[in-house]
Design brief:
Elements lengths: L1 H36 L2 E10 L5 E11 L5 E2 L1 H11 L1 H22 L6 E5 L2 H4 L4 H12 L6 E6 H5 L2 H13 L3 E7 L6 H4 L6 E4 L1 H5 L4 H16 L3 E5 L4 H9 L4 E3 L9 H22 L1
Parallel strand pairs: 2-4, 4-5, 5-6, 6-7, 7-8, 8-9
Antiparallel strand pairs: 1-2, 1-9, 2-3
Helix pairs in contact: 1-2, 1-3, 2-3, 3-5
The structure holds ligand C2E and magnesium ion (3 copies).
Ligand C2E binds next to strand 2, helix 2, helix 3 and strand 6.
């Protein structure tokens, strides 16, 4: 009897959990390998000023490039990397690569804005986070005011008083702070006004919802809330012209989304910057 129970248990494990566990283990191994072999790459998505249509910054988004050239999106490995702790090392690689790329673009006269890097919860709670960031900025020679960090409501709400302390230390360095995916987490309004933020990013889910009056009102409310707190507002996941038009009417400040561009490899983003510069030169030439 015990034997058959054991067999059942084994079968149960085999059917449902095993596949997941194997996939997880495979990804974990792949990430370990990837860290050693430098398979993590950073893509960049432009952020455009909604009024002038000019580039104001970009978000750095990690990608895993397989040896065969395939691209694995972070949605599939970041959650596991968070659990295994590998996110710490991956995050450091992303920060370093992003700062270095931006330093080069600045040197080439192609860019003078801010690069936004996502910080995971476990990175944010590292006791040596500020030292780590100082080191990367020093190594890459990127002035701190070219850096912005994106954190989520979940990250700062784990311990708001501690989060405020860390945020103040980062702000003291001239680093900008953005609340990412706003509206999807559980941040309280009481804390929102205490967090030393610069920017609030409206989650794509709200932008997708703007085809209804209720949805538009919601975005209107978030933009007003942000402006009342003197925060800059970024809409993420803008895909359509109609969304852009509504966001402009609602006085949103910056947009990010496929409407302008998908996240681009470093090489493609360089080309994008060069095109922007040419376009700009032409505009100036015409207006003279
Ligand atoms: P996020 O920080 O909210 O980044 C925005 C995501 O929306 C990106 O997905 C971007 O490609 C996608 N997106 C932007 N515009 C559009 C659009 O118009 N349509 C659609 N369908 N999608 C759009 P991605 O690159 O797959 O990243 C997913 C999430 O993974 C990020 O969400 C972030 O939470 C996390 N992530 C990415 N890179 C890093 C990283 O370096 N460190 C950490 N800790 N997390 C990261
Ligand atoms: Mg982000
Ligand atoms: Mg976001
Ligand atoms: Mg999002």
């Amino acid at each position: 009897h015990a034997k058959s129970e054991g067999a059942n248990r084994y079968l149960f494990f085999n059917d449902s959990m095993n596949k997941q566990a194997v996939k997880r283990l495979q990804l974990e191994n792949l990430m370990r390998h990837g860290l050693k072999e430098d398979y993590f790459s950073v893509y960049y998505q432009p952020k455009m000023d909604i009024v002038s249509g000019q580039l104001v910054g970009m978000e750095a988004l990690v990608r895993f490039i397989t040896p065969k050239g395939g691209v694995i999106s972070p949605a599939s490995f970041i959650p596991i990397a968070e659990e295994t702790g590998q996110i710490i090392e991956i995050g450091e690689v992303v920060l370093y690569k992003a700062c270095l790329a931006v330093k080069n673009w600045i040197n080439q006269g192609l860019f003078h804005g801010r690069v936004a890097v996502n910080l995971s919860s476990s990175q944010f709670s590292l006791p040596f986070l500020c030292d780590l960031i100082d080191d990367v900025l020093q190594q890459t020679e990127l002035p701190s005011y070219h850096l912005e960090l994106e954190i989520t409501e979940g990250t700062v709400m784990q311990s708001p008083p501690k989060a405020i302390e860390v945020m103040k230390k980062l702000r003291a360095r001239g680093i900008h702070l953005a609340m990412d995916d706003f509206g999807t987490g559980y941040s309280s309004l009481a804390y929102l006004k205490q967090f030393p933020l610069n920017t609030l990013k409206i989650d794509k889910a709200f932008i997708d919802d703007m085809n209804t009056a209720r949805g538009r009102n919601m975005v209107d409310t978030i933009v007003t809330l942000a402006h009342n707190l003197s925060l800059n507002v970024v809409a993420e996941g803008v895909e359509q012209e109609t969304q852009l038009a509504i966001l402009r009417k609602l006085r949103c400040d910056v947009i990010q989304g496929y409407y302008y561009s998908k996240p681009l490899s470093e090489e493609d983003f360089s080309k994008f910057l060069q095109e922007q510069k040419l376009k700009h030169a032409k505009l100036t030439a015409v207006s003279v």
